[in-house]
Amino acid sequence: MGAYILRRLLLVIPTLLGIMLVNFVLVQFVPGGPVDQAIAQLQGGGDVFESFAGQGNDAQLNSQTNAVNDSYIGARGLPPEFIKELEELYGLDKPAHERFLMMLWNYMTLDFGESYFRKIDVVDLVLEKMPVSITLGLWSTLIAYAISIPLGIRKAVRDGSRFDTWTSGLIIAAYAIPGFLFAILLLVLFAGGSYWQIFPLRGLTSDNFSDLSLLGKVLDYFWHIALPLTAYTIGAFTTLTLLTKNSFLDEIKKQYVITARAKGLSESRVLYGHVFRNAMLIVISGFPGVFLSVFLGGSLIIETIFSLDGLGRLGFEATVARDYPVMFGTLFVFGLIGLLVGILSDLTYVLVDPRIDFERREG
After folding, report:
1. Same domain, yes or no, for 139 and 103?
2. CA atoms of 258 and 253, how far apart (whole Å)
């Protein structure tokens, strides 16, 4: 098993390299880089895309400036020396391959750079935002397991009944609802949109959080995350519930269950004393993968809708602002977490069921 883990860890390096390379190449073809963003802010445009929209309104162009600044649509009337200084400031005066190799070298030395527009180290930004995303992802995964496992067992026991049919319909319908659409619906219904003002609209804590008692802080925290957690978790029940149900149905049909019943054991003793332990192997071992899917799949849109300062929202804002250090820093973190969780999933399989041998399978 040690050799398998080592091989998987070594594969992390070329995989991350491929992820970074593909995204770096794609970014080179996307208009509106950090220089355009800086120019738009300096000229009061607020956003580079407004400069794109108004590019046909300036008739009088300085010929010398035009020759230098063809690639910067918003740089109308700005001296070429100033544009050159901006390029040097953001490191865009070097060829793309040099910038990519320099970025990789900095990442190898754990130097992720500084945000172009926030003037904060990328590492500090990521460490600041990561607890929000991890907390929401972890709570969502725990809630999904807490509901899906009992529901899946119940569906397996009552397979083919009306209960099994209508619960299947409900969880499939929940799976089909886009998370962002359900989040907006929750805001409209319960956060003062058009009906009830029951839950807060944004943030994880109240303004007076520091003045509350310990119990008050706990209640305030759960009061704030109720809607985001619901939106996060709405689509996570289906796969887990059906996986639990099918695992139990497979185990119930096996010979040892028939033998246990023939010995006179009660149905609950057979179900929870014998079937549960074997049927839960694949469900429990899939915990890291479920957490990763919730963590990566819902963080961007849900955090943006509920104004939560997590990694998803940080990456989105960095992409809009063309803040390359933050963009690639969050991409690196997401990619690394995804690859490590994949390895953790394999380890969990082995810990739960020692009969699994990945080295023998690879051989």
Report:
1. no
2. 8
Q: Are 122 and 314 in contact (CB under 8 A)?
A: no
> Which residue has 């099918």 as its token pair?
246
Q: How far apart (Å, rounded) are the C-alpha atoms in residues 315 and 26?
A: 16
| Residue indicated by tokens 């250090």 | 325
- Here the tokens at position 167 are 């619960």
pLDDT at 79: 64
Q: Whole-angstrom Cα distance, residue 284 to residue 22? A: 34
- Owning domain of residue 106: 32-111
CA distances, 316 to each of 12, 20, 26, 190 (Å): 24, 17, 16, 26
CATH number of the domain to which 304 belongs: 1.10.3720.10
pLDDT tens-digit map of 167-196: 989 888 888 887 778 888 888 888 776 678
Q: Are residues 288 and 147 in the same domain?
A: yes
- 188 with 329, same domain: the answer is yes
Based on the domain organization, do 201 and 282 belong to the same domain?
Answer: yes
| Cβ(324)–Cβ(115) below 8 Å | no
Q: For residue 169, how far is the Cα from the chain centroid?
A: 27
As a whole number of angstroms, the distance between CA 20 and CA 333 comes to 11
What does the pLDDT look like over 202-258, one tens digit per residue?
777 787 888 888 888 888 888 888 888 888 787 778 888 888 888 888 888 888 888
Angle at 133 between CA 130 and CA 138, to 5 degrees: 120
User: Is residue 151 within 8 Å of 241, Cβ to Cβ?
Assistant: yes
The residue assigned the tokens 């750079």 is: 113
Domain-embedded: residue 19: no
Q: What is the DSSP string of 85-139?
A: HHHHHHTTTS-HHHHHHHHHHHHHTT---B-TTT-SBHHHHHHHHHHHHHHHHHH
Q: Of 117, 62, 138, nearest to 327 (Cα)? A: 117
Cross-strand bridge partners of residue 191: 197
How would you label 192-205 residue by residue, b for 16+ Cβ within 10 Å and e otherwise? eeeeeeebbeeebe
Residue 296 to residue 91: CA distance in whole angstroms: 30
Tokens of 279: 């049927």
| Distance between CA atoms of residues 273 and 159, nearest Å | 20
Which residue in this structure is represented by tokens 């995303």? 133
Token pair in block for residue 247: 């695992």
In this structure, the answer to whether residues 69 and 195 fall within a common structural domain is no
Q: Give the per-residue pLDDT at 49.
A: 39
Q: Which of 126-130, 180-184, 296-300 has the lowest mean pLDDT?
A: 296-300
